[in-house]
Amino acid sequence: MLEGILIGLSTAFSVTNLLMVVGGCLIGTFIGMLPGLGPMSIIAIMIPVAISIGDPSAALILLAGVYYGAIFGGSTSSILINAPGVASTVATSFDGYPLARQGKAGKALTVAAISSFAGGSIGAVLLMIFAPALASVALLFHSAEYFALMVVGLSAIAAFAGTGQVIKALLMTILGVIMATVGEGALFNMPRFTMGLMDLQSGFGFITLAMAMFALPEALYLVLDPSRSKTEGGTNEIKDLRITKAEAKAITPVIGRQSIQGFLIGVLPGAGATIASFLGYAVERNIAPKEEQEQFGKGSVKGLAAPESANNAACTGSFVPLLTLGIPGSGTTAILLGALIALNVSPGPRLMVDQPEIFWAVIISMYLGNVILLILNLPLIPYIAKILAVPRNFLIPFILFFTLMGAYIGQNNSTELLILVGFGICATVLRFADYPLAPLLIGFILGRMLEDNFSRSMQLYDGISFIYERPMTLGLLVLAVILVVLPSYRARRARARAEGVADGD
Amino acid sequence: MTLMKMTRRVVLAAAAASMTFATPSFAAGQVVDSIHFLIPGGAGGGWDGTARGTGEALTKAGLVGTASYENMSGGGGGKAIGYLIENAASNHGTLMVNSTPIVIRSLTGVFPQNFRDLTLVAGTIGDYAAVVVGKDSPINSMTDLIAAYKADPSGTAIGGGSVPGGMDHLVAAMAMEAAGEDPTAFKYIPYDAGGKAMAALLSGEIAALSTGFSEAVDLANAGEVKIIGVTADERVAAYEDAPTMKEQGIDTTFVNWRGFFAAPDLPEEQLVAYQTALTKMYDTPEWEEVRARNGWVNIHNNGDDFRAFLENQEQVIGDLMKKLGFL
User: Fold this and answer.
1) List of domains in chain B
2) How far is A346 from chain B, CA to nearest CA, in Å?
3) In chain B, which residues have their Cβ closer than 8 Å to the Cβ of A41?
């Protein structure tokens, strides 16, 4: 292994390759900040450039740099304007945006940058040590386990079911799952619930829905309820990007746990960064002490650190099946696989043996990329955070512009804009009625995968016997029940105790 | 040309999304001034790669002056077809890329039009289909797979990356039928992306996978799978070890083609110009580079040959889909 690291170091530290990392990170970060352009589209755009370089190591290092940069930049729009451009940064906005509203945007961006850095770096170490061993573990997961994993992911909604909100959160989740059934699914030959509209054939777009649920209502809310637009702490504090000692102490174990958990989830093909971020959020909320638990969703640094470290670690984790098995675990790695093949590199068990310089150069470039991103981003944070100091009359059109642009550029389809505005208005009404919108989006994101894996398992096992015939499925489902029931049980017990009633009714 | 200028002026992001690779022409023998490629799906898909790759080869080789690209997704490709037909008069400079699904989707009524409503320019590339098994599987041939299926029909599922009734399913059903089995009886498990289907194959969830040949070759080269049947007439040079379905007594051939269509009522001389440019493209090193990079197989059908090929494919697929109960 040491020899491999040396090969990787000497490859990655050549002048061209260093330029590739820096260039890739810069391009990725800046384009990634725009909602609507996720890592997948940025990499797709960069592939012709990378291929024209010719040298596979350099090309791959460039693309990997773009990838990390895009993930890094993606959290910025979630935190600042509540507009998550990719599914894996939805959980980032849960606590990142409230922090920004409290005038702590600088702090939020710093926490996100550090968590991403830690998640990515720990992920890279794990990748280096465990990649070959983990490849076989990933194959233990069948559709039945993926189904159960999605159920565990859905349990993240428990985090939004505050007092008296359980029914509302549940309703919104179900609505999200229902919305996910629109269009031509992977399992049916016929489009469903499209009402004959051709534009609904491929279902609702994720970005359209994310903008409609988060960013647009936020902008409308600022207009309709001007008193809210005064941030609670005043906008002057934006420069404050220091993390206090207490906060650093609080987030360190969170980052550690979520980097490892996120990496392991990322290894599973098809689970990926989104599930990792939701699960990370749910798990951290459940194990937090009661008083901190209430902070989740209102601007908890822990709630921000958890999904950020988890999604970055998961992105690194998704390289395990790509490099060792040649299986792309996510849309982004699928595009990377295409680029690899175009460069005459065949990922698979033989890659480490046949072309070790490529394998190791990628891993070393991951460390490098993470360090460079941190160096690039920390000094920029005060300037980026200043966006929020822009007066409301300028900020709102700015948010609206990016919201509409984000929904449009992915598909170049103007109908998306009508859907966006329609849902945006519905979402604003729901917000005024105090319905949480995040569960809807979680339900929508996980709904399709939930259904696909469930019906595949049903088909393979001729019924639902897979639930008890496969121990891992059963175990995951039990875990999901615990994640949902435990918080409300704890709350009830606390209430019962307060009323002087004995435990265990 | 106006469109190109506009594309350069719009905001950075929009320009990035609909990137234009305009290379000035310097070589003699330019056949067409400019081509606007209409891509019925999003960036990064198979259609997108085909259009951009073809445009790159045509412009670099100097056969076409400039190429521009437009992604118009929606309706499984139906939106772009509708657009091309409705705005036919103003789209004589447009070529739309499409592939086998245009046949399948017009049969199932996903969109009301079919290929006859367009001007057929040429089928340019293709890919055969293949059935693969994991490298450690006891199955080594189609005969083994059929035997395993007969022994345990419920436990021998075949997976694929398309919906039931889609291409991968149809290929598996064709092979089953040609082997004398009931094409409606076997379990077809759909996955929404090739990668997940591969993971399912290696994890043992499915016994075999129906997929594209070029994808299968990449995996076979990586030592992950064994190719047990190819839907070509003869063994393919790219991977000589893979036996054809035919040589195993299963009379099944299938080509997943990709090609170009133009607006209805395209003037004859323009059609000829496009066809000439595409025909000349095959002999250029620029095309060879793009083709090799993507692992495409040259399967060239011009105009009337293309029509005959599509009509035959429509017939075969339509009959099979009726049998499978999808029509």
Assistant:
1) 2-118+263-295 (3.40.190.150), 127-254 (3.40.190.10)
2) 6
3) 17, 43-44
